[in-house]
Amino acid sequence: MTLGQGKIWYDGKFVDWNNATTHVLSHVIHYGSSVFESMRCYKTKKGSAIFRVADHVDRLFDSAKIYRMPLPFSPDELCQAILETVRVNKLEECYVRPFAFRGYGNMGVNPLSNPVHVAIAAWDWGKYLGDEALEKGASAKVSSWNKSAPNTIPSLAKAGGNYLNAQLAKMEAVQEGFDEAIVLDVFGYVCEGSAENIFIVRNGVIFTPPTSASILAGMTRHCVFVIAKDLSIRIEQHLLPREALYIADEIFFSGTAAEITPVTAVDKIPIGDGKRGPITTQIQKHFFGIVQGEIEDTHAWLTYI
Ligand SMILES: Cc1ncc(COP(=O)(O)O)c(C=O)c1O
After folding, report:
1. Backbone angles phi, psi at 186, to 5 degrees
2. Fewest 10 Å CB contacts: which of 58, 101, 125, 270?
């Protein structure tokens, strides 16, 4: 199923795709007051399974809490609704987008009296950075836009409004011929991609910025820590200066959309030998092995439809 077909779960009921609408004066349209999640459903040998559904729903609740947005469903109800959305749409492999937003009511900035709506959509979504990027790697540009400073827009909340900054970075990168942007924080340290966490490898050790560096605490980022531990690869959280990118042996992105994608050039400087590196390959193979049901899911990351 592609965009534009099927059913969307909207405030507890399934509605036709084209009827999942909201008023143009909804608070979210004017002030970006939404929180959302993205997750993937993978086709495995044992059937379709959603990756880390409960953890994603927990993060949705955290994001909503930060924005004082009471969600009118329990985490378990939303997990069940997510599984049902995939079932109802008869999707074997797809991307799932649960989200909550402030609806129609008050037109001022204060959202507290506006209703909170919750919806879940699912559709086919292939490889986010292109089919070839998983093997050949993506090119990235250090953005001229910085991530919001701490105590401005909370990066631990996955909120719609955060993605204005991400859009600026992504548009600039794409229009200049790169696949993706790498954004620095206001102190000049490496943060993340426009919709991915970032890892660098140097002398056999994986490094990534800490959650205090204005990043989203990515679910796939957490998987990389767990997989690295399983594979006995050292992984550390450090503030990383921009130039650490250029002298890395390997770089890779992690994210629900991007999965594990190598980055083979930054600002047109080849990373290592300009090809997917051995540690990236190991992490990538293990990740895809688990999500495709070929490696035992010892961390209970898959929930079967
Ligand atoms: C800004 C940002 N950072 C990191 C990520 C990766 O997070 P996850 O692995 O949970 O998809 C995403 C994608 O959701 C994102 O939008």
Report:
1. -70, -15
2. 270
Closest residue CA from atom 5 of ligand 1: 196
Note the pTM of the prediction, 2 decimals: 0.96
The CATH number for 186's domain is 3.20.10.10
pLDDT one-digit tens code per residue, 25-48 = 999 999 999 999 999 999 998 999
d(CA 43, CA 47) in angstroms, rounded, equals 6
The H or E element that residue 106 is part of is none
Atom index in ligand 1 nearest the CA of residue 215 equals 3
- Judge if the beta carbon of residue 221 lies within 6 A of ligand 1: yes
* pLDDT over 90 at 112, yes or no: yes
107 CA from centroid of ligand 1 (Å): 30
Centre of ligand 1 to C-alpha 21, Å, is 26
Give me the active site residues, please. Answer: 158
Pairing of strands 190-193, 302-304: unpaired
Residue nearest to atom 6 of ligand 1 (CA): 255
> Where does a domain end: 75, 101, 123?
123
Check whether 128 has a pLDDT greater than 90.
Answer: no
Please indicate, yes or no, whether residues 52 and 98 belong to a single structural domain of this protein. Answer: yes
User: Which residue shows structure tokens 């109800």?
Assistant: 77
- Cβ neighbourhood burial of 131 (10 Å; 0-12, 13-18, 19+): exposed
**Using a 6 Å cutoff on CB, does residue 197 contact ligand 1?**
yes
CATH number for the domain that contains residue 58? 3.30.470.10
Predicted pLDDT of residue 2: 67
Q: How far is the CA of 15 from the centre of ligand 1 (A)?
A: 28
Domain of 106 in residue numbering reads as: 7-123
Per-residue pLDDT at 255 exceeds 70: yes
Tens digits of residue pLDDT in 70-105: 999 999 999 999 999 999 999 999 999 999 999 999
